Amino acid sequence: MLPRGRPRAMGAAVLLLLLLVVGFFLFGRDPECKRRSWAGEEGTLCDRCLLTPRVFSDGLGTTATLDEDPYGSRNLSASSPQLLLPPKCEMLHVAIVCAGYNSSREIITLTKSLLFYRKNPLHLHLITDAIARNILETLFRTWMVPALVVSFYDAEELKPLVSWIPNKHYSGLYGLMKLVLPSILPPSLAQVIVLDTDVTFSSDIVELWALFGRFSDKQVVGLVENQSDWYLGNLWKNHRPWPALGRGFNTGVILLWLDRLQQTGWEQMWKVTAKRELLTLMATSLADQDIFNAVIKEHPHLVHPLPCVWNVQLSDHTLAERCYLEAADLKVIHWNSPKKLRVKNKHAEFFRNLHLTFLGYDGKLLRRELFGCPNQFPPGAEQLQQALAQLDEEEPCFEFRQQQLTVHRVHITFLPHQPPPPRPHDVTLVAQLSMDRLQMLEALCRHWPGPMSLALYLTDEEAQQFLHFVETSPVLSVRKDVAYHVVYQDGPLYPVNQLRNVALAQALTPYVFLSDIDFLPAYSLYDYLRASIEQLELDSRRKTALVVPAFETLHYRFSFPNSKAELLTLLDAGSLHTFRYHEWPQGHSSTDYSRWREAQAPYRVQWSADYEPYVVVPRDCPRYDPRFVGFGWNKVAHIIELDAQEYEFLVLPEAFSIHLPHTPSLDISRFRSSPTYRNCLQALKEEFHQDLSRRYGSAALKYLTALQQARSRA
Amino acid sequence: MLPRGRPRAMGAAVLLLLLLVVGFFLFGRDPECKRRSWAGEEGTLCDRCLLTPRVFSDGLGTTATLDEDPYGSRNLSASSPQLLLPPKCEMLHVAIVCAGYNSSREIITLTKSLLFYRKNPLHLHLITDAIARNILETLFRTWMVPALVVSFYDAEELKPLVSWIPNKHYSGLYGLMKLVLPSILPPSLAQVIVLDTDVTFSSDIVELWALFGRFSDKQVVGLVENQSDWYLGNLWKNHRPWPALGRGFNTGVILLWLDRLQQTGWEQMWKVTAKRELLTLMATSLADQDIFNAVIKEHPHLVHPLPCVWNVQLSDHTLAERCYLEAADLKVIHWNSPKKLRVKNKHAEFFRNLHLTFLGYDGKLLRRELFGCPNQFPPGAEQLQQALAQLDEEEPCFEFRQQQLTVHRVHITFLPHQPPPPRPHDVTLVAQLSMDRLQMLEALCRHWPGPMSLALYLTDEEAQQFLHFVETSPVLSVRKDVAYHVVYQDGPLYPVNQLRNVALAQALTPYVFLSDIDFLPAYSLYDYLRASIEQLELDSRRKTALVVPAFETLHYRFSFPNSKAELLTLLDAGSLHTFRYHEWPQGHSSTDYSRWREAQAPYRVQWSADYEPYVVVPRDCPRYDPRFVGFGWNKVAHIIELDAQEYEFLVLPEAFSIHLPHTPSLDISRFRSSPTYRNCLQALKEEFHQDLSRRYGSAALKYLTALQQARSRA
Fold first, then answer.
1. Is Isomerase included in the keywords of this UniProt record (chains A, B) (predicted)?
2. Residue A56 lies in a domain
3. From CA B398, how far away is CA B410, in angstroms rounded?
């Protein structure tokens, strides 16, 4: 209970207590710990100085507060008197090694938790392989977080520095790279916090940074003690861990005092130790951690032990409970079991919830500025903010304008992906979807055995559901040639053409089939397209668009035709129709279905108003016009662009794809029910035509004429 | 920058500094403030003690830290030396007045922000009207948050205590109730934090609670200064605010020292002041806040001014910027403009993001226990946890078992609702849906002019999108007779029958039409059903189920028949079909469509295997069996239950409803593609039959026989 009666007297008592505590911290604790453990008695460091709940009471007698809170996490750690936080605008530096698809997802969740609690500018130093760099460069560029700087370092270049160390840990060579950070980070950088990708913050990193202030003159590395018995040895027969002080230290969270490390000859030091140990130990089991521990065992004065709350380690057989059960304040959770979130632990649910908080957290909400700190805006952010601020909220098409300007976070290749081998006639299916079309993916995979590039418009939470969906689908989980690009939701209108452009930009084959998610291609289409591209020698005449005729069924369950002949039979029986024959015949009339029935060879067709066929084009074709958001005219504008650039439309006689029925989208419902929505679409069309005239001059006249004719008919 | 060289010397310096600061806080600051302002010089309190950025440097000379951080928010406030946090398991008390639908939504967002940062057990004391109580009792019961106690107090009973005060503020009588909290909260409660529903926490409330420790002996109320010029007067001609010290105080966040208030005769004190002021001022403009300020003006020793970060007030013309621009740490945001989130403020985006964080935060993640605190589980939570822990993760139907046990948070009447007037033959349409069926709602409203009770299965984020959807729909926003109940998503299988039961339990008319969201009733159905109920004198023979025959169309756009005759024409033309005639004829065969064609009067039909008609039944009909989650057999089981309880099935000759096409749900797709899914459904059916036999004995034999026959056919 809080003392209620006499605040001043209480204040004085507290002051006295604080003096004792401060004194203890400054003059009592570290030497005590060092005396007991640095002398080499294994096990004493952890038992007495970090994991034993009684350490603070030793020097102080029994006081309620200290007894109940031995880890210095509540009234003592971050808020403890001797800990002065750096000024609010001081940049904090964080280094992380990250390689591959899965770690790239992990690091984003870690970053969200960092950003959520941080109040200082952050500089992330990311040591990445080509895959992670590709993903993360796009992500951070589109994320546009104020007061966040990201630098990339090529992990390939570091490989030779550590590849001589045999390593059995699943992290491979990347796991060892933390050892060489002092040599590769900029010399201007005096201090850095190094993190594993599998940690989650639940507090402000500035409190961790401030612990540099507790280092003694000689200390260069801040670490939390290991919360498992691994380094004690004898876990099984012939279990022989690397040398360590007691339980050793965990390297998931490291405070590196870089300039001091340089001065102490770190590079030589760890190499000498590693080489000597490798003579008998053959390989590292826990990568860098083994070597850090061996060095510390030899030079114990180098390490500054950190409170355990800064690296709560959640393995199956963790001793972490001894840390957190007493602490009200957990600072960093470390999912350092290979089982990750599925780790068995009686409080696993608690930790999972903390992690899920950031997994599902809407990253755009972290585009928060830091009040009163200068120069915090990433490239383009200020201009964007100004453009958005200039929009008139009362204007009827405000929502459209705002949606057009929105920069969505983009996470390319969200899942592991095997890029297709280079083949001159290969075709990637390009499409976009949101959560309500997920059930199309399995069927699509059965119909299209080739590469796909799909953009998904999802919330952060849905992205996790999507991940689960793919991982548990026997059909999808084996298809490594399908690249999924997550575009994060922001705003009420579906940014259909922005999505298409993301998927198109990530297609890696020379040709792309620009499709929609609710169409299933003929089973033979992938092979047929590649054969046609080869036969038609498209590579020598690049400006060709191959048209794939579109049909539709109104039945959810129907047997998909195995050939053109079967398709024609269904068409004649009325079970199939040409696409949108009743609602929007002009969309596909140029395809000339009656000619297609009889055609044996590709035939050329001319553009006509509102034509929007599904086409196969070279990958470098024009992009979709991102001004078209929501429902309507998004493909039509793209086909006009192709025509204006003098693409030739060739209909393929054996190609077809069939539209399956689905619930009308919210956007189409709004289009139908709202005159404003239709007026705004009309305004977009007109602006598009103005741009077209500007770019193509009189050649664009025919599109304008067509629009005017269409309008006079309406 | 952090000092790097000599940590001990630095530590000693910091210690010295702290001593000065502590001394200043304990012995310097409060008297200084009091001398200057309590003497009655208006404006000096705020200028010198709260809003002026130089106050701390007065006593200390210029030090970087203190100069830069005048609000004591970073190194000094929560973490400041004299502020001792209460023990981690100490219960903190919070009182909130809450009335109506919209405030009930607000308070949930506030509670999420509280729970997110809190590390202590919390006791919420909610003073509610009947509407809020109904909503919040259900919500907190189903939320099952550990270490959270909720008590309700009837606002009706408080009305007479404040209704004599004329009040012009939009909060009405409820706005005044904070004045009487000291008389109605339990006498055992010594201290309480009082909050408005429109505040958002961005820090741990324990830090606010700890400020009680800074109260002097005489102080009884902790408040943050007002961040507008309202109480300075002269904002416009004849603007005459209530008396206040300088800018006065804002009552959105109050620390009430209850037992001291009692001792000081608070009740008499505020009444005397209010009555006196009302002689000249006629009415309060800002409800309780005017009276609090008038009392404080008269008895300035009662107030303990709180740092401004604990109530950052976001009105259009707020002075809050002077508070937060200097502070890195905002603690509580107060949306105290009637415009709420649409407030104009150059940092509005920042504050909105903070608020949106909790608006969309998945509340189930707050079911986190507090480590090391005893007795924190709400009723049923421990048993539930045990039952879940006993499930075998490797069992093939694990997902089904887990989903059945899941307790979903339920927010009944999410939007303002006008209960239907009591009418003996009235019927409520009952259905459930998820986000992907939202576009059905407008059409449904056009077809059914009567009351509806709809359960929506949503994430927290989707609930906000849903709110926006209804508010911007001209059709939906005017329909106050539609009650929307949000059931929050948790788990991979759609809990269809749990949803139906929520909607059914909230229906307020004597009869319910148990429908599905993808059906549109005949335009006349609502009137026809009420007439039929009256004519058939159903109230005298309660066990009747009126059958509404079901049809389907495969076209998204079709003209809905205006009569049975028109429907029959469409049926004959093949544009309509009897429901699932091709896929699942047994579902509706008992309805006997050919008899219905000719029928002029209601006719009785017998149950047969797999019968699942849409029926109208008394509100107290049996509930749906919640074991059926995902796709399959959920309605069939309910109809069996009706039959087993000897309900009579009467088909209505003029009633019909038509199913519109939609994309197959993920659940039906999984049912079709996964043998495990089908096996689990089969297991559920068998368990259902076993229960049936247990309850109805030999009378249930016919259902089992039917099941076995069906299986032998399969």
1. no
2. no
3. 24
Q: In this structure, are A236 and A294 located in the same domain?
A: yes
Could you say which residues from 52 to 81 on chain B have a Cβ atom under 8 Å away from some Cβ of chain A?
Answer: 64-65, 68-69, 74-75, 78-79, 81
**Bridge partners of A411?**
A486
User: Can you give B665-687 as a three-state secondary structure string?
Assistant: CHHHHHHHHCHHHHHHHHHHHHH
Which tokens sit at A393? 């909220």
Domain shared by A537 and A418, yes or no: yes
Measured from the Cβ of residue A701, the count of other Cβ atoms closer than 10 Å reads: 13
Which range of residues forms the domain containing residue A519?
Answer: 410-707
Lowest mean pLDDT among A95-104, A621-630, B28-37: B28-37
Q: Do B357 and A360 touch (CB under 8 A)?
A: no
* Mean of pLDDT values over B478-500: 96
Q: Which residues, numbered 182 to 201 in chain B, qualify as contacts with chain A under a Cβ-Cβ cut-off of 8 Å?
A: 190-191
- Looking at the fold, whether A353 and A432 belong to one and the same domain comes out as no
Residue ending a domain, choose from A339, A366, A393:
A366
Q: Is A210 on the interface with B (CB under 8 A)?
A: yes
On whether both A238 and A141 belong to a single domain, the answer is yes
Q: What is the ipTM for the molecules in this complex?
A: 0.81
Q: Are residues B484 and B605 in the same domain?
A: yes
Asked if residue B149 is part of any domain, the answer here is yes
Considering the domain architecture, whether residues B359 and B439 belong to the same structural domain is answered as no
Higher pLDDT, residue B6 or B453: B453
Of the partner residues A86, A88, A669, the one whose CB lies closest to the CB of residue B2: A86
Of A609 and B379, the one with more pLDDT: A609
Q: Which of A511-515, A670-674, B291-295, B535-539 has the lowest average pLDDT?
A: A670-674
> What does the block give as tokens for A148?
């966040």
**B387 CB near a chain A CB, below 8 Å?**
no
A439 vs B325, B328, B666: nearest CB: B666
| Cα–Cα nearest to B449, from B410, B475, B487 | B475
Is A565 a domain residue? yes
From the centroid of its chain, how far is CA A431? 20
Check whether residue A427 and residue A497 sit in a common domain: yes
Set of chain A residues whose Cβ sits within 8 Å of the Cβ of B19: 15, 19
Q: How many domains does chain B have?
A: 2
Query: What residues of A are in contact with residue B583 (Cβ under 8 Å)?
Result: 557
Find chain B residues with C-beta within 8 A of A662's C-beta: 662-663
Q: What is the DSSP letter of A417?
A: -
> Which residues on chain B are in Cβ contact (under 8 Å) with A493?
none
B544 and B687 part of one domain: yes
Rounded Cα gap, residues B50 and B313, in angstroms: 14
Is residue B11 within 8 Å of residue A22, measured between CB atoms?
yes
CATH code of A285's domain: 3.90.550.10
Is A217 close to B439, i.e. CB distance below 8 A?
A: no
Say if residue B45's pLDDT is above 60: no
Among residues B312, B341, B366, the one where a domain terminates is B366
The reply to whether A18 touches chain B by the CB within 8 Å rule is: yes
The answer, for B210 touching chain A at a CB cutoff of 8 Å, is yes
Residues of A in contact with B675 (CB under 8 A): none
A391 found inside a domain: no
DSSP 8-class letter at B341: G
| Six token digits for residue B467 | 């709110």
Say whether residue B663 is in contact with chain A using an 8 A CB cutoff. yes
Q: With 70 as the cut, is the pLDDT of residue B202 above it?
A: yes
Chain B residue numbers with beta carbons less than 8 Å from the beta carbon of A666 are 438-439
